[in-house]
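Title: Prediction job returns without error message
Component: structure pipeline
Severity: low
Priority: P3
Assignee: unassigned

Description:
Job completed but the reporter wants confirmation the result is attached to the right record. Sequence as submitted:
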Amino acid sequence: LIYIENQYFTSARLAEALIEKLKLEQGPDIVIVLPMQTGGWLEKVTMDVLRARIVNRMIDADTHDRLRIYYPHQPGLGDTCISVHAKLLIVDDKILRIGSSNTSNRSMGLDTECDLVIETQKDNDKIHTYIRGLRHRLFAEHLNRSVEQISDAEKQNNRPIAAIESLMDDQRSLRLLN
């Protein structure tokens, strides 16, 4: 599993790396949570356009049905949306990267950023258990479910994407980003 939450997603380099993973027959599920749209008008005509191009390339490369790009949904918001401001990456519950960098070309190459990476090589040690618990808490928050429901759904469905989709509903939840 590669799990990303970020405010922006416009890094061509990161998209290419994920596309290479999507091409693998036995590659990981890739789950990305982004805002439905970015902030003001300037971001909408720049960042959202770039994001759409990259997301469409990734969707086209997803021949094994392992990519989902979601946004958090809350009924009754009208034209507004929930802002995702996280800058987080989790890989196989063994790597956690969290910090200030967006998944954008500017953030990855021009801005001064500070990120922390925690990694373990072991299954079920304290670090692995902590990272999985953090991911379960994030999924629980987005899906308006308990951590136990997230854990149970993953055990029953064998894939994070299937677990997420089994828990989605019409209330506060995740929705596919179009």
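Comment from assignee: result matches the submitted record. The two ends are 22 Å apart (CA to CA).
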